[in-house]
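In keeping with the milestone schedule agreed at the kick-off meeting, the structural modelling team has produced records for the first pair of proteins. Each record is given below as a sequence line and a structure-token line. The laboratory manager (R.T.) confirmed that both were archived under the project's standard naming scheme.
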Amino acid sequence: MDPEGLALLLPPTTLAALADSWLREDCPGLNHAALVTGAAPSQAVLWAKSPGVLAGRPFFDAIFARVNCQVSWLLPEGSKLVPVARVAEVRGPAHCLLLGERVALNTLARCSGVASAAAAAVEAAREAGWAGHVAGTRKTTPGFRLVEKYGLLVGGAKAHRYDLGGLVMVKDNHVVAAGGVGEAVRGARQAADFALKVEVECGSLQEAVEAAEAGADLVLLDNFKPELHPTAAALKARFPGVGVEASGGITLVNLPRFCGPHIDVISLGMLTQAAPALDFSLKLFAEGTAPVYPALP
């Protein structure tokens, strides 16, 4: 999917509400620095200082829109960044531009970091000759999930379920509470009705077979190491229509070991939980001059 089109997934009202909440968190009271800068018209350049994938333009736009500033982008969403790169220009009253600066940079840096990690994971999978789905998980930052899930998509990965309502996931604790795999799956199947799929976390081939027999659509083989591929092959031989997801302890380094002909999805919590943020900065420049990134001391 074209990263530029992904912005259509984000409702404008949701973007505005998120931007408001982030700005209120950063400045809930008096903004004393506004007296230093004043309200004169100003302009700044957004610079990318580290390599990666650009992601998060809609959030950046929404934040500056809430403080009466306009953003002009020089690079499209999903661009591969080669530092130091001019990414965008922002114009507006000086005190407003600086009010939105840190919030916008934080959001863009985190979103781009997730997209960069996702792109690296997808590339590793394709280089291993595997054409399945690389996905994230629900291991997201509270209050920041939409940004991180969006970043996964820009990076070419799948978001997996957005929340508990997107898929009925039967985990190990659900199995214990329900009294067994079969009981848990049958309850989940009834709750899901026709609208949702049911996925079951399994710790052995026996549990996977039991889950498939009870009506699971997908089976999650979590923290399987040497026995992952034989287990997936045996399950697919009996239930070819059941999807198989591999998860648990997967990194960009060991991901190729999880790629196989009987694995449909590989999910990595580290794409959202451990992705390093990219480095961006916003530098004001005088009207009529050519913006140049400041030389390092």
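The second protein of the pair:
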Amino acid sequence: MASPSDQTAKIIDGKEIAHTIRSEIAEEVRGLSEKHGKVPGLAVVIVGDRKDSQTYVNTKRKACAEVGIKSFDVGLPEEVSEADLITKVHELNSNPDIHGILVQLPLPKHINEENVLGAISIDKDVDGFHPLNIGKLAMKGREPLFLPCTPKGCLELLARSGVQIKGQRAVVVGRSNIVGLPVSLLLLKADATVSIVHSHTKDPEAIIREADIVIAACGQAHMIKGNWIKPGAAVIDVGTNAVSDPSKKSGYRLVGDVDFAEASKVAGFITPVPGGVGPMTVAMLLRNTVDGAKRVFGQ
């Protein structure tokens, strides 16, 4: 860990920023309830009993309760058929009390993820993964109904930390459908000059060194070294990697895709792992749910 004397980067505290956003959302939900006698509703569908998925779902459930959003929990067995899952999604689409539907990924191998996500009504696609929402995100002059939560959270962290995006050179490390691709499109929409580094990129270090903004989302512990970072750059680390640590009760600790100890000596802004992007993802899910409800309520 960098000592205070050689740590120059301002820490972007995702927990604190997410807490502020949740307070703003709770106030909005109270206003909607008073004006319309209804509150936003979020349905979370979980298939099977994966421990990590259960943890994510519990976090989302608690966050909903905290801001006054009504939570609809749908748990289905691991062996549920794709057809039955899609039928359940259609039921949720037609429920007027539900303004957002989230199907927790990954799904069991026998279910086609694309078919299920495509079955969610675009008006309730609070994850922002519907092909029409992603398609509009990719087009100039078009606005999707919802933006994917983690990428939206990354840009919100930059904005609330006073980091300028317009005209800056941004490098996204990773090209997944969940983070890398949509965050690169969002940065482009915000007038950054964007490069994407992926597994077939030659000399990634040289490209990352030119970045004013680095979004790391490759899922490789400490891949990005401190000397890869341009002095004063803003670094958003989406990576959450478990590495062995015998000193911890669990036997592991979570680290990012960026070597925080080294990078924090060089960067201008940096997110910690954990506590950086994670809390923002949930906050943006709540934000999307409230925005979906406001469209229905006519606000």
